[in-house]
Every structure is written in structure tokens, then in C-alpha cells.
Amino acid sequence: MSNLSVPPKLQPLVAYLDTLTARASIERLQELLAASNATLADVGEFVRFEPGHYQRNLVALGPWYEVLVICWRSGQRSPIHNHAQSTCGLKVLSGICSETLFAHSPCGQVVALSTSEKHAGDVCASEDDDTHQVSNLQAPGEDLVTLHIYSPPLRKMKKFSITSAVAEDWRPPVVEFAHGEGI
Q: What are the domain boundaries of the chain?
């Protein structure tokens, strides 16, 4: 993918990510997202929703990273998942993000530990076997838009259930909108 359509306020971030020769640390991704002053308006061309599930919209891609704008309608949530050898940082651009953290029980099922709300401007991060679920639990009509950096790109993760000890491999879909593609 060409990174020519990267919004101007994300260009310094992407320029840094283009210099990576290895996986970025969780602390560095948190710093980059906290320092970013990109707003919902700045990423408007990547704000696309899907009625049946949240949508992962690709902004930029390199060998050691991907930048996504993820759009969530009320009631949409990710599967319970880990980040399988990738580091993820997210920043809330609009709405309220509910993040539920999970632990693995002795019987192999996951159990919820806590849920916290992240508001516009808030940043959180996870990596490797950290297991969580991201949700938009706001009232109907209230959207959530989040900016994500994955390093390296997240191609496959483990998906978990609270009712089964079996973890499934899952490949999250990504939608490209570069230069009008996907529209």
C-alpha cells in the first residue's frame, strides 16, 4: 500500500514508523499516540462503519507497523483476543471506549478482570498474550472511533470465549481506502 494519502497530522508519526527496523515497544507506541494531535476530522476519509461489526480501516502500512482507524457503532465489540507477537496502542478519537481485561483460568477459559472507560484523547496499549476486548457500549447512535498502531502488523491473533477453553486462530479483516479504493 502507498502511504501517500496519510492525513497531514499523522505524517510525522508514520515517518517515524517508517524508520523502524524491529518491533516498537509498548511504551513507544503509547508515547507516539499521546503526542499525536490528530482528531476525528483529520482522519475523516478513513472513518467508515459497517452495520454488522466494527470496521478496521487501513491508513498506513510498513514492514514493522500498520496504522488503522477502527470504527464502532453502538453495541459493536471486538472478540476477546490477544495480540500474538504484536504490540498495539490505541487512542480514542471520538466516543467512549470500554476495554475489558481478561485472565486465563486454570481450566483454560478466560475470566473478566476489569472494565475501564477510555474517553477522547485517552491512550491504552497491550501486547503479546495480554487478553482483552474493546467495545462501544454507548447508547444507540453514539459512535466510537479509535486510532491504532500495531507493530508489527497484526495478521493473526487468538480469539477466546468465556464458555470454552479452546482458543481459535483469527485473522482480522482490514479495509483499504487509499486513493478511493474500497469505496
A: 8-171
